[in-house]
Amino acid sequence: MAGINDIAENTGCISLEKILENLISMIELALDNNIKVILCSVLPANTFSWNPKLLPADKVIQLNKMIYTYAKSHKISYVDYYSAMVDDNKGLLKKYGEDGVHPNFDGYKKMEELLQPFLKSF
Q: What are the pLDDT digits (tens) for 86-112?
């Protein structure tokens, strides 16, 4: 699970394609070292309090589609946190993260619930 900090431009502007390339590099390194990989969607976010000029919701959706497509084409498990945690405004449900980006305890519990079936298959 990675990409939201890039979408937030925390270290500068970066394309979604470059974000995916970075993820693929990490995946390839992991697989080359016999580390099993599970890809997870980026959590929903429709605003960043530290960078309010950005509107991340559609980028998150697009990146998740890219990650899912890669996972499917390479037979890598994919956990869809996004669909289970998104609100009507393409943001993170308040019950899962008060700031709209970072999960709280209930958010992590939901993520654990969604991830557990995939971990059992290893």
A: 999 999 999 999 888 999 999 999 999
Give the per-residue pLDDT at 8.
86
User: How many Cα atoms occupy the beta-carbon half-sphere of 86 within 13 Å?
Assistant: 18
Question: Residue 38 is which amino acid?
Answer: I
Find, among 83, 79, 62, 82, the residue nearest to 20 by Cα: 62
Sites in the chain below the pLDDT cut of 70: 1
Question: What pLDDT, on a 0 to 100 scale, did the predictor assign at position 84?
Answer: 98
For the chain, how many residues are written?
A: 122
Do residues 7 and 60 make contact, with C-beta atoms less than 8 angstroms apart? yes
From residue 84, alpha-carbon distances to 9, 32, 112 in Å are 25, 32, 12
CB atoms within 10 A of CB 111: 19
- Give the three-state DSSP class for 46: coil
